Amino acid sequence: MRRAAVFAVLSLAAVVATACGANEDSGGGGDDETASGGGTIALLLPESATARYEAFDKPLFEAKISELCADCEVVYFNADQDEAQQAEQVDSAISQNVDVMVLDPVNGQSAAALVADAQAADIPVIAYDRFIEGADYYTSFDNERVGELQGQALVDAVGGAGDILMLNGSPDDPNAAMFKSGAHGIIDASELTVVGEYDNPDWSPDNAQSWTTDQLNTIDPASLAGVYAANDGQAGGVIAALTGAGIAADALPPVTGQDAELAAIQRIVAGEQYMTIYKPIKGEAEGAAEMAISIVNGEEVAGTTDFQGVPSLILDPIVVTVDNIADTVVADEFWSVEDICTDDYADACTAAGLS
Where does the signal peptide begin and end (predicted)? Predict the structure, then answer.
């Protein structure tokens, strides 16, 4: 995969910061003999409802820091989707005199003020996963490309004209705007017709289910050719609404997703969800850790490209359907066959060649 080439150029000579979290402890202590002097890195994530942050981003980031520096500390915060709480957490990190801040904002637009506060205290900021105007560095995926891949997958799955619903992400999330733009660029040029569209506050699966149910009260559920759902949580809500409206699981229209959550992979195996976008989080988290290491050591951050005037590490998203689960999320050990193929999915896994 192309992401391997991206990380090959990130030859960042290392000594960095890591260890305990502000919300929970994390063990430090790597064995890099070149590591010296300690530093402190603040990792601030936006919420815990989406499975990826606590299950992947946080431990992967901390593990990489620990690998590279035995005497470093990571102070960890999770804002639980609360802007005011995240602002307090940024203030706390500043008061602790951290050396660098890795910030995934609840609200990308208002977070520019948080970046300015950190920089006023001589703390560089890496915008993580979501772009923040004025950040010193940025690491994420090609988010417009995510929407394009989702839109193209839906167009291909429908294979012609038809009515669709669109469920986009939170209006406060700058990534959501890019997903939406990319998807519209493909869908608007196709023969599909958007008969209902929703920008979902907080990416809530419950909101997605309620909104879809309301739409199905005004249109014939059987008339839907497909549904664009910007992430897997919303896809789950959409599918619950569709089955609740009487559509059999084997007659569901194509539904898109993103994040390669375990439940979504299982739905794909079972034929309930058409696809998801897999973003290799390991590369993103480790790339951010390597950036932080270079900053702590006063070294140049290598291997970046320009994104809106900010030195950035931009990675490639990957489409996952039932045909390539083994070659993507399983091959990367993101999920194991044992994770996916529980008793409820054993027959579907066999049919998909996963068992």
Answer: 1-19
Of 16, 80, 82, 85, residue with least CA distance to 49: 80
Q: Global pTM?
A: 0.81
What is the CATH architecture of 143-278+318-351?
3-Layer(aba) Sandwich (3.40)
How does pLDDT run across 77-107, given as a tens digit for each residue?
Answer: 999 999 999 999 999 999 999 999 999 999 9
The model's pLDDT over 326-338, given as tens digits with 9 standing for 90+, comes to 999 999 999 999 9
Residue type, 133: E
Residue 137 near residue 293, CB atoms below 8 Å = no
DSSP 278-327: E--HHHHHHHHHHHHHHHHTT----S-EEETTEEEEEE--EEE-TTSTII
Fold of 2-142+281-315: Rossmann fold (3.40.50)
Dihedral, CA of residue 56, residue 61, residue 63 and residue 66, to nearest 10:
-170
Say if CB 246 and CB 228 are below 8 A apart: no
Tokens of 187: 């869908």
H/E run at residue 310: strand 310-315
Alpha carbon distance 81, 245 (integer Å): 31
User: Average pLDDT, stretch 278-294?
Assistant: 95
Q: Are 40 and 269 in contact (CB under 8 A)?
A: no
Q: Identify the DSSP state of 273.
A: S
Both structure tokens of 45: 């994530």
How many CB atoms neighbour CB 10 within 10 A? 17
Task: Tell me the domain boundaries of the chain.
Answer: 2-142+281-315, 143-278+318-351
* Residue 163, CA atoms < 13 Å, CB-side half-sphere: 11
The answer to whether the CB of 170 falls within 8 A of the CB of 203 is yes
pLDDT digits (tens, 9 = 90+) for 16-64: 333 333 444 333 333 333 344 589 999 999 998 888 899 999 999 999 9
* The amino acid at 338: E
Average pLDDT over residues 152-156: 98
What is the average per-residue pLDDT within 1-15?
Answer: 37
